[in-house]
């Protein structure tokens, strides 16, 4: 099974959307294996978004992401990196389809409520950046036989 990193950004937390976002992943059939509610430092966010360091919005993004609490999570499931990106919608909510998290819940690119790893390689890096091995919970989901052949 793949794992991916998902974070409810400060705007999503402030708007009370953590439960809705968790519900969408659970309803889809994915398994939550790690979660924590944190206020990340600006330095941590600079490391997280290092691949965007040459973009004009980088400094503002890092400052914003460290401005309030974040719900950091690791979800597990078949093809979860690809599927979670589809669930999130486009980075710009105006380009997101109804039914996606961003398409349904936000309107502005600078306040797009959620982050999700874009590749399996980045998911591994992001998971390792945010979570230690002992923070994962291993368990058998009773729904697994109903989700997978």
Beta content comes to 15-25%
Indicate the structural class. Answer: alpha+beta
Encode the helix/strand succession as letters: EHHEHHEHHEHH
Biggest sheet, open or closed, and with what strands and sense?
4 strands, antiparallel
Main location: other
Protein name: Nucleoside diphosphate kinase B
EC number: 2.7.4.6
GO biological process, one term: UTP biosynthetic process
Describe the structure.
The structure is a single chain. The chain has helices at residues 10-14, 18-28, 42-48, 58-65, 80-88, 101-105, 120-130, 144-147; strands spanning 2-8, 31-38, 70-77, 114-116. It contains 8 helices and 4 strands, in the order E-H-H-E-H-H-E-H-H-E-H-H. The protein has a 4-stranded antiparallel sheet. By secondary structure, the chain is of the alpha+beta class. Helix 3 packs across helix 4. The protein is globular and about 45 Å long. The protein has a single domain, classed as Nucleoside diphosphate kinase-like domain (Alpha-Beta Plaits, 2-Layer Sandwich), CATH 3.30.70.141. It catalyses: a ribonucleoside 5'-diphosphate + ATP = a ribonucleoside 5'-triphosphate + ADP; a 2'-deoxyribonucleoside 5'-diphosphate + ATP = a 2'-deoxyribonucleoside 5'-triphosphate + ADP.
């Amino acid at each position: 099974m793949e794992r991916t990193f998902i974070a409810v950004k400060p705007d999503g937390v402030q708007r009370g959307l953590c439960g809705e976002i968790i519900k969408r992943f659970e309803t889809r059939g994915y398994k939550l294996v790690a979660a924590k509610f944190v206020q990340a430092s600006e330095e941590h966010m600079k490391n997280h978004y290092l691949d965007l360091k040459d973009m004009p919005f980088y400094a503002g993004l890092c400052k914003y992401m460290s401005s309030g609490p974040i719900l950091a999570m690791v979800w597990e499931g078949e093809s979860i990196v690809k599927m979670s990106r589809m669930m999130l919608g486009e980075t710009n909510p105006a380009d997101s389809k109804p039914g996606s998290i961003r398409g349904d819940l936000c309107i502005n690119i600078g306040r797009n409520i959620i982050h999700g790893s874009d590749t399996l390689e980045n998911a591994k890096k992001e998971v390792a950046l945010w979570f230690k091995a002992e923070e994962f919970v291993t368990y058998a989901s009773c729904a697994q036989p109903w989700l997978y052949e």
